[in-house]
Amino acid sequence: MEKYSRIVSREEIAKNDFNISPSRYIHTGEADEYRPIAEIVEELNALADEARETDVALKAILAKIGV
After folding, report:
1. Greater confidence, 59 or 2?
2. What whole-number distance in Å separates Cα of residue 23 and Cα of residue 53?
3. pLDDT given for residue 12 in this prediction
4. CA distances (Å), 49 to each of 17, 35, 37, 44, 53, in order?
């Protein structure tokens, strides 16, 4: 079963200095997702804008109730 078991040859085990740790042969983690830096910066800027708008709205609500 993929990500749970795997048949490994003696040659591969020898190549890995006879290390039979399962993590050496079975990769259970998800693949890393890579995105362009420009896309990440754009998302961060949008989140910062949203945070500023939320702060303004919250301050307006708090001003109405006298806080």
Report:
1. 59
2. 46
3. 93
4. 53, 21, 18, 9, 6
Q: Which two tokens stand for residue 49?
A: 């804008």
Q: What tokens were used for 6?
A: 């795997």
Can you give the residue ranges of every domain in the chain? Answer: 1-33, 34-67
Query: What's the rounded mean pLDDT across residues 39-66?
Result: 96
Arithmetic mean of pLDDT over the chain: 90
pTM for this model (two decimals) = 0.49
From the list 29, 1, 24, 28, the residue with the least C-alpha distance to 13 is 24
**Lookup: tokens for 5:** 């078991």
Tell me the C-alpha distance between 57 and 49, whole Å. Answer: 13
